[in-house]
Design a protein that fits this description.
Layout: H1 3-28, E1 32-34, E2 38-43, H2 44-55, E3 59-67, E4 71-77, H3 79-90, H4 102-127, E5 131-133, H5 143-146, E6 160-170, E7 177-183, H6 185-196
Antiparallel strand pairs: 1-6, 2-6, 3-4, 3-5, 4-7, 6-7
Helix pairs in contact: 1-4, 3-4
Length: about 210
Amino acid sequence: MNELESDIIREILNIGLARAADSFAVIAQERVMLEVPNLDLLPSSEIIDRVRDYQARYVAIQSDIRGDFNGSTFMFFSGQHVQRLSRVCLRMQMSDSLQLNELQESLLLEISNIITGALVTQLANILKANIYGAPPMAPTGDLAEALQNLLPDPSALQPLIFSVITQFSDKENSVELPLMLFFDRATFEKILEIIRTYDFLGKAQSAT
């Protein structure tokens, strides 16, 4: 991936994430700011360490991406987010605990479904790909288990995962809501092939 290709992928993701941020703003009844996503090609072990670090501090909700692409999104809700969303959406005054009741878990699952759906719809339209978001779930236990479908064969020469990390936050309180997006190596190669063979201005061009 050269610098231009990286910029194109980042801009495509920005468009999709902007739609997701708009959807979240409607739910949270807040003005939501979106941090520019960073793109990484990381070894599997580093990805696992990173999600475990987030899991220790947040409630994780997972949504898988299926179809032409193989990926997963993880939304990490802090105790403050759970508290505020419970107040706004459920009219419940709750503490900022990470221990969820049934209503709170259902709320986070629905929020993740809406946000991931908005992101996936935009990516499908831009990349002309047949992809969809699977129903979200609240994984229990080690998040490394939830990533098994993305982890490559240990014997692969370059066991890499395409990782995107961004933050949603509101202007006044700056409560961060991390969103991590992972694609396996085969999906990353498909995305690169799409941007290398299409100029996104309505005219296909031959691969170089």
